[in-house]
Amino acid sequence: MPNQSRTVAYGRVHNLQIVSVTQLAPEREGYWVIFIHGGAWRDPAVTNNSFDATESILRDTPGLPIAGFASISYRLSAHPNHPQDPISTSPKDFRDAKHPNHIRDVEAALAFLQNTYSFGGRYILVGHSCGATLAFQVVMGAVSNHREQAFSGATENPEISVGVVSASPGPLPPPLTAQPTAIVGVAGIYDLRRLRDSHPDISAYREFIEGAFEADELLWDGVSPAQMAGSRGVEGGWKSGRLAVLAHSKEDELVDESQLEGMEESLRQWEKLEAQIPVQELSHRDRRVRVLPISGAHDEAWERGDQLAYAIIYALEQLREMGLAPQ
């Protein structure tokens, strides 16, 4: 299959603001598969290249309605096992990102891809681990397009807010022109506070969460896709979405199953609502939430690529069943 592969910069602030792109032969009704890597917002060994094995498997699988692949790198937070000297390290290589740097980079990359390839809503956003967090943050009402607000009281009350909770210098990326039709979260982190509380004896969980989001636990809740309800969560933010797939392995040694359970509960509210799409586009507005068991340890999903590819193929099959992808 003819293709054009390249790695391009979508930002000028940091050398990690790059995206690897493979455009396949024109497929008018095909989907772009766009990957967001994990690594606890900080692992320099986990970048856009972590999608290579999966992409290779998918490209060797005949008959998939895929028009292109993209894998996004983004600015990373500091990692204690990979120290850098701030004096001798170029600012473009120095890893000190704090929220919302990570999500802003993802949104900037998506805007670049939209502007370059004009695929509209025909894309599947795929995230592994904290990449799954970022994928759902893209469509959260309170996080997407930088509308974050602090809140007081119950997280399920979307109307209680007390102003902006975080900001970072620099221009904002343009807002998304079209939301993804499907999101696939693999071994995802969906509730930061619950993740910390599920591993009280392992300090690394608190450390990497604070490394990315500081110590404000209200902020942790405000950016957690499984915590925010109503207009501030995925329920109210992902207006045109059609399919959510949550993939998790019982052999996952790093992210426990309670993350999956909390996100599924949140998405069931989204599933009940009809998708907001132009009347002339489709004959129905149904949505689906699917839980997909996979196998292997946490990082094996992308290291081997087979389980990540399995989840993406499953999502394409679901879109076909819904009449949203060519047979």
From TrEMBL:
Pfam families attached to this UniProt entry: Abhydrolase_6
All copies of domain AB hydrolase-1, residue ranges: 33-266
EC numbers: 3.5.1.9
Record-linked SUPFAM superfamilies: alpha/beta-Hydrolases
Active site (record annotation): 129, 252, 298
Pathway(s) served: Amino-acid degradation; L-tryptophan degradation via kynurenine pathway; L-kynurenine from L-tryptophan: step 2/2
GO biological process: 'de novo' NAD+ biosynthetic process from L-tryptophan; antibiotic biosynthetic process; L-tryptophan catabolic process to kynurenine; monocarboxylic acid biosynthetic process
Motif (HGGXW): 37-41
Key words of the record: Hydrolase, Tryptophan catabolism
GO molecular function: arylformamidase activity
Uppermost EC category: hydrolase
Catalysed reaction, written as an equation: N-formyl-L-kynurenine + H2O = L-kynurenine + formate + H(+)
Entry's free-text remark on domains: The main chain amide nitrogen atoms of the second glycine and its adjacent residue in the HGGXW motif define the oxyanion hole, and stabilize the oxyanion that forms during the nucleophilic attack by the catalytic serine during substrate cleavage.
Family listed: Belongs to the kynurenine formamidase family.
Role summary: Catalyzes the hydrolysis of N-formyl-L-kynurenine to L-kynurenine, the second step in the kynurenine pathway of tryptophan degradation. Kynurenine may be further oxidized to nicotinic acid, NAD(H) and NADP(H). Required for elimination of toxic metabolites.
Alphabetical list of HAMAP family matching this protein: KFase
Subunit structure: Homodimer.
Protein name according to UniProt: Kynurenine formamidase
